[in-house]
Every structure is written in structure tokens, then in C-alpha cells.
Specification:
single chain; mainly alpha; ABC transporter involved in vitamin B12 uptake, BtuC; 14 helices; 0% strand; globular; ABC_BtuC-like
Length: 343
């Protein structure tokens, strides 16, 4: 029996590995386009020279190294973090519509960025980062603490309700500050649109350890999420410690969502749609869902950034707006094709 099950599993494993290679190829294409396409198109040969043999007296080399490499790296980090954190959120809450907005992450980050702008005079992206990260972390901790109250502990319904309530409260505070401070509104609206522009590597690299830590925790949590998907009672019967699993996932979500929201703004639909697309290839196994999301998330965000540069030449549209525009019909198609109760 064991031999038969092993033989039966081989075609599925080959299919999943093939899917991973295809996703990796798509990501490579998105990176190449991000470095070559824009208001000033650059050939791939010049891109390679600019990266490996730069001559800063050549304008195209300067454009690639100083402008496009930083925004591509930030798109990769933010997309990776959003894709994986979306899979974790949907797994831990057993809510197929979970995304960084569900647990109040976007609202917390937005509120604290606005506080930094309005009360501390922060104007640079490198300053927004730490306010956004702190706000995202506090929001997630508060939501989990509220959702854990009561005899049953942190259930999916209580976490969703707590996140919705906190988001409403934070959004009200944001509106009050924006209505009373026109200068803060002008600076805040650029960050809140979800853009990869004007985010230098000096703002992203200090947060790289948080992304790495979040990814490691997500990989560890994959098997736990498979148990939680069976329901709390059955997961306990299989020996799964529910508190440990939820705390581990919550910490990973703080690390990943906080970082993504900090460096790229409150981008929607990446964390929501990417895990569903991954399930088309993987089925319900969260270990593979997380792996696919790690490739599909940055592919989507970087591709959206490229599209935003092309459709509005010589200007551009923020990546967050493009993702929202593309994500809406995708989400509608997913809802029509997939039985959400089975997720």
C-alpha cells in the first residue's frame, strides 16, 4: 500500500515542481520587463551592462541602477511578503477573503504613517517605514488580543470581527486628521496609493531581516495550517497545539504585512488573490500554497508596476491602483469558479 501511494504521488509532485518552474519563469520575465520598460525604454543588453559593468556617464545605466533596480527590489519584497501573508491569513482565519486589511494591518500602518507626517514632520519614505511597521504590528497584536478573549480563544470569526472593528476605528481617526490638516493630506495620499516610486533601497534593506524571519516562520507554519484547515477539534485530536500555531502565524503576518505595507503602502488584492491562484495548482496543501504564493505575489506586483508605466506615458499609474484594477475581475472569476466553503 505504501509503495502504491508513493507511486501515485509522483505525478502530482512532478506537476507541482513544473508549476513552480513556470512561476519562476514568469517572475524572471516580470523582473526583466521592470528593468527595461518605462518612460525611457532600455534594451536588455544595456540592462545587463548597467548591472554588471556600469558606466555612470551613460544615462541609460544611471536610469537602470538608480531608478529601476530599487523599485524592482521593493516590488519583489512587498509582493513576496503580501503573497505569503495572504496565504497565512486565509489559513489561520479559515476565511477565503482574508487579506492584510482583515486584521487591521493596512489601517494601523496608515494611521501611524499619518501620525508621523502630521505630528513629527516625516517627509521621506525611509521615515514612513518605521511608523508604518509599528502601526501594522500594533494593529495585529491588538486584533489578536481582542480575538483571544473568551473561553474559545482566538477563533476565525472573532479575529475577523475584531479586525473589522479596529479598521473602522482607525479609518475614522485617519479621516479626522486629514480633514483638519491639508498639508498632511497632500503628503499622505501619495504613500497611501501604493506606489513603488521614491522608495529607495535605504528604506527597504533595513526591513529585509523581518521579511526573512517572516518567510521562515511561514514555512514552519505550513504543516500546522493543514491541520487547522480540518477544524479545531480534529486539529487537537491530531496533536496540534492551536495556540502555538496561531501565535506563530500571527508573528509571521506582523513581520510580512508590516514590511510590505511600510515600504509600498496599503496595497490590496495581492494577498487576497494570489493564494487563490496558487490553489488552482496546489489544492489545499498550504506548504505548496505558500511556496507558489512566494513566486506569484512578486510577479503580480512587479508586472502591475510595469503596466502602470506603459499605459500612461510619459507619466505613470501607481502599482497599487493597477493591482486593484486587475484584481477585481480576477476575484469575481474566483468567486464564481471556486466553492469558498471548501477553502
Amino acid at each position: 500500500m505504501l509503495a502504491l501511494s508513493t507511486v501515485a504521488a509522483r505525478p502530482r509532485t512532478r506537476r507541482l515542481v513544473g508549476g513552480m518552474l513556470a512561476a519562476a519563469l514568469l517572475l524572471f520575465v516580470a523582473i526583466a520587463l521592470s528593468l527595461a520598460v518605462g518612460t525611457r525604454d532600455v534594451s536588455l543588453g544595456v540592462v545587463v551592462d548597467a548591472i554588471f559593468a556600469p558606466d555612470l556617464t551613460i544615462t541609460d545605466h544611471t536610469v537602470v541602477r538608480d531608478l529601476r533596480v530599487p523599485r524592482t527590489v521593493i516590488g519583489l519584497l512587498a509582493g513576496l511578503a503580501l503573497g505569503i501573508s495572504g496565504a497565512l491569513m486565509q489559513g489561520i482565519t479559515r476565511n477565503p477573503l482574508a487579506d492584510p486589511g482583515l486584521l487591521g494591518v493596512n489601517a494601523g500602518a496608515s494611521l501611524f504613517v499619518l501620525v508621523g507626517i502630521a505630528f513629527f514632520g516625516v517627509t521621506a519614505a525611509s521615515g514612513y517605514v518605521w511608523f508604518a511597521f509599528l502601526g501594522a504590528a500594533i494593529a495585529t497584536v491588538v486584533v489578536y488580543a481582542i480575538g483571544s478573549l473568551g473561553r474559545e480563544g482566538a477563533t476565525a470569526v472573532k479575529l475577523a470581527l475584531a479586525g473589522t472593528a479596529l479598521t473602522a476605528a482607525f479609518t475614522s481617526l485617519i479621516t479626522i486628521v486629514l480633514l483638519s490638516d491639508g498639508d498632511a493630506f497632500d503628503r499622505y495620499r501619495f504613500w497611501s496609493a501604493g506606489s513603488l516610486v521614491a522608495r529607495g533601497l535605504d528604506a527597504a534593506l533595513p526591513l529585509l531581516p523581518f521579511v526573512i524571519t517572516g518567510v521562515i516562520l511561514a514555512v514552519v507554519a505550513g504543516r500546522m495550517l493543514n491541520a487547522l484547515a480540518l477544524g479545531d477539534d480534529l486539529a487537537r485530536g491530531l496533536g496540534q497545539n492551536l495556540v502555538t500555531a496561531r501565535v506563530l502565524c500571527a508573528v509571521a503576518v506582523v513581520m510580512l504585512c508590516g514590511t510590505a505595507t511600510a515600504i509600498a503602502g496599503p496595497i490590496v488584492f495581492v494577498g487576497l488573490a494570489v493564494p487563490h491562484v496558487a490553489r488552482w495548482f496546489t489544492g489545499p496543501d498550504y506548504r505548496w500554497i505558500i511556496a507558489f504564493s512566494a513566486l506569484l505575489g512578486p510577479t503580480l506586483l512587479v508586472a502591475a508596476d510595469v503596466i502602470g508605466r506603459v499605459v500612461a506615458k510619459p507619466g505613470e499609474i501607481e502599482a497599487g491602483l493597477v493591482v486593484a484594477f486587475l484584481g477585481a475581475p480576477v476575484l469575481i472569476a474566483l468567486v464564481r469558479r471556486v466553492k469558498l466553503a471548501g477553502l
